[in-house]
Amino acid sequence: MSDRPLLGMTVEEMEDAMRARGLATFRGRQLARWIYLRRAADFEEMTDLSKDLRARLSRDLTITDVRELGRWVGSGGAATKYLVGLGDGSAVESVLMRYDYGYSICLSTQVGCAFACPFCASGAEGLHRDLTAAEIIGQWYLAQRRLDERGERISRLVYMGSGEPLDNYENVLDSMRLFHSSGGPGIGYRRMTISTVGIVPGIRRLASEDIPITLAISLHAPNDYLRNRLVPANRTYPLAEVLAAAAEYARDSGRRLTFEYAMIKDVNDHPDLARELGILLADLPCHVNLIPFNAVEECPWEPSDRQAIDTFERLLSMAGIGVTVRRSLGSDIGGACGQLRRRFGED
Description:
CATH architecture of the largest domain: Alpha-Beta Barrel
Low-confidence stretches: 340-347
Shape: elongated
Order of helices and strands: HHHEEEEEEHEHEHEHHEHEHEH
Number of strands: 12
Radius of gyration: 21 Å
Largest sheet: 10 strands, mixed
Helix content: 25-40%
Oligomer: single chain
Strand order of the largest sheet: 1-2-3-4-7-8-9-10-11-12
């Protein structure tokens, strides 16, 4: 059996795999259609291939080595969390979210995380390894197969799960290119978002790629003193450097920036911090996404109350900053990235 699954290959790579087996290259295009557009999980589903060819391919190739280990649906059905098993026995999480505009999926990019933000479960045990492009795509594949049963489709990709996407740059970009490709799922770049803690070299490199994705920066504080506490990467890439790189990205891509701000009670939700944030971001084309904090077992902090969030939102609006409060999804299903994976490891 081939060491590399078909899911995660480009159409050209599938064509090469068929050519190496003495088969016509158009068979590769057939495989890509069945896997990326029809989400086939077994060669027997590929009915325009002969029975003998299906048997031959099943002996020599595998479609994917990711599998669904568990699935939890939140109250109201707006969020579904998947625990995704990988070929080496590791596991990651992805979250399917239903909005008025359709479905978005939050994808993990690493097993664990090296950046150890104290309010995030993903980094509590450090970084285990990067995900391959195939493993990133596999998260979408499993969720989309479930939606296929209802005739629905994932329309947006958000690289905001466990891990730091810009710390796994090549595999993340490879997955985006495949998602976007005409032979793949065909999801537009403008419907993709990368979230980062502010890895300045990665932001600048992304700016040079000429792909119009949305850049979201996990800000969480308007000054270095507080951000050093909440986002340890700030000690390496302080706010001034992060914002300069973000401005460069906005200029080169023509895209508005998103800044994520987790609202943590009595830590970063004081009105003075909202005013400071409004001044900090005044000259950037941006939008602030206020995120009610998802409590993590090891962290003593609590979510901000509604009044504090409303005040923070109002003060940013008064400063001329576009702002929304993210609807809280998945808090009843271990919504903070990393929680389910760690429970799985303890079982």
